[in-house]
Write a structure and sequence with these properties.
This protein is mostly helical. It folds into two domains: 147 residues, Tyrosine recombinase, N-terminal domain (DNA polymerase, domain 1); 135 residues, Intergrase catalytic core (hpI Integrase, Chain A, Orthogonal Bundle). The chain contains 15 helices and five strands. The strands form two sheets. The protein has a three-stranded antiparallel sheet, with no helix packed on it. A hairpin with a 2-residue loop joins strand 3 and strand 4.
Length: 366
């Protein structure tokens, strides 16, 4: 039986339930166990999400939520149940999950340290597990299987995100000089001037560039999911965007297009065309880990600090703000969801600006 504020709303719910039944997805009842509802939720709602998102949700349900809460009745789940589960989740050993009894039975240890190494989930992992449960129970409430979402009443610690350090202008020039002549030099220039993420760089297509108008659109990414490279849409509307190309980047991409044509002709039948701006040497999507390895070697040759490729994105944010570009424009270029993220990166990376500020105070008090 389904309910709704209007006949149309109730009929729409009934239609969805019938469609899922035809797909082999049985509708849950109020007396269903949490594990049964989570299985239904994964099949009915999560399966249509981006592969990386769906895989993360499925892992949280399979490894944590069903073992911890799966046997409880959905409509009887309490705040105390969820709070006790989250406490146990923070304290459990990841190495022993689902294995400790087996290890004890055969006299093995879960790691070299002892019977239990106490390798606990990180704060970020715990928060993610809680978020998955909260989302699932939110759907249960919308389907009127529970009267309230008890997960929203349980607070979990928020993780402290680390923001990598950016490079100075001279360090960026040093890095780009070290990459000159290599086929990936244009990629690093785009990363440093426009702040594209790794997956966005590898997913960029020539059709996403309008070199006559000097603009670039971000439409897709390349990610490794479940052992396979996948080309997929950007993760959110905030990640999409049309960006103007700086002249140095525009001219470099024009030259890169000509060089890629020569590379394609040299590869002959071995080339598989995907229309990518930064493909492998055979035209296929580039393995993200290969790009990381090349960047690490480039950074070492340039004798630069231990930074990640993603820190070029932070560098772009810092340099634009240093040049006096208004934060809301930098946010638009970086495609951050909120300007607070933009300013947080600046606060973490711009030590020299802070040193100059306190020096002014020092001069006044001297």
């Amino acid at each position: 039986m389904v309910y709704g504020d209007t006949w149309d709303e109730a009929y729409e719910k009934l239609t969805r339930l019938v469609a899922r039944s035809h797909q082999g997805i049985p509708a849950p009842e109020r007396s269903s166990r949490v594990g049964e509802f989570l299985t239904y939720w994964l099949a009915a709602y999560v399966a249509d999400l981006r592969p990386t998102t769906a895989r993360g949700y499925e892992a949280a349900v399979r490894l944590h939520l069903i073992p911890g809460l799966g046997g409880k009745r959905l409509d009887k789940l309490t705040v105390q149940d969820v709070r006790a589960f989250m406490t146990a989740c923070r304290q459990k050993c990841l190495c022993c999950t689902g294995k400790l009894d087996q290890h004890r039975a055969v006299g093995k240890r879960c790691c070299s340290v002892g019977e239990c190494c106490k390798r606990h989930p990180s704060t970020r992992q715990v928060q993610f597990i809680h978020a998955v449960l909260r989302n699932a129970l939110g759907q249960a409430m919308r389907e009127e299987l529970v009267s309230r979402n008890v997960a929203t009443l349980v607070r979990v610690p928020a993780p402290r995100y680390k923001v990598g350090k950016g490079l100075s202008v001279e360090q960026v020039k040093t890095l780009l000089r070290a990459a000159e002549g290599h086929r990936l030099h244009p990629l690093y220039l785009v990363a440093a001037t426009l702040g594209l993420r790794r997956g966005e760089l590898l997913g960029l297509r020539w059709q996403d560039l309008d070199l006559d108008r000097g603009i670039l659109s971000i439409e897709q990414t390349v990610q490794r999911v479940a052992g396979r490279l996948r080309v997929q849409d950007t993760k959110s509307e905030d990640s999409d965007g049309v960006l103007p190309l700086p002249e140095v980047t525009w001219l470099t991409l024009l030259d890169h297009q000509k060089r890629q044509k020569i590379e394609r002709e040299a590869a002959g039948k071995d080339w598989t065309e995907h229309g990518l701006v930064f493909p492998s040497q055979l035209g296929t999507p580039m393995e993200p880990r290969n790009l990381n390895r090349h960047f690490a070697g480039l950074r070492e040759r340039a004798r630069l600090p231990d930074i990640r490729l993603h820190d070029l994105r932070h560098t772009m944010v810092t340099l634009l703000l240093d040049l006096g570009v208004p934060p809301h424009l930098v946010q638009a270029i970086a495609r951050h969801a909120h300007v607070d993220i933009t300013l947080k990166i600046y606060a973490h990376t711009n030590l020299e600006a802070m040193r100059a500020a306190v020096k002014r105070l020092d001069d006044e008090l001297d």
